Amino acid sequence: MKIAVFGATGRVGSIVTNLCVKEGYKVNALVRDKEKAENLPPEVHIIHGQATEARDVEKTIKDCDIVFSALNTDKTYTLSTATPLIIQSMLSYGVNRIITIGTAGILNSQYEKGKYRFQSKESKRRSTFAAEEHAKAYQLLNKSTLDWVILCPTFLPDGASEGTARYEENHLPDNGKKITVTDTALFAFKELKAKEFHHTRVGLSY
Known about the structure:
The protein is of the alpha/beta class and 206 residues long. It is 33% helix and 20% strand. Helix 3 packs across helix 4 (78-93). The longest helix has 16 residues, at 78-93. The radius of gyration is 16 Å and the shape is globular. The two termini are 30 Å apart.
């Protein structure tokens, strides 16, 4: 299997990329920062460029079987700009499956029907910019014909594995407080192989 990875130098993306290489998968990784790219395994085929540039996205996805994206917002519109480019490139090259890392803010509210969590009293964040960007990406994928899955961890501290993740489609598991970066990456890697979920958001927590 050959995987196109976006966000390969980030917290979750770097772990998933390393796991893919150890499993023997081929990896194309689009990386903006050349210095950070040096930390990736030598087996990774690195494409230097921007996720907001169509040509760079196309180079990354061409000849791949599946796409994994751990792009974040970084207080920019990168995510909402890159997502339609990724979708179009996948359609052009006949790649149907994409797994992305989102945020628990775009899951459905448990108590306020018709609202995302970030729009409800369940969210304690003052700024909604990142959640709004992730919501745009979700809406774009949901309108597409692709086989997509958005993994939505709640509070995401650094750290090693702390146990088995709980999950629920389109909602955050009851009393979910956190899940480490490592366990989020392990869940994502498992989904890359198992293909258990389709056309859904998956809330993750302990």
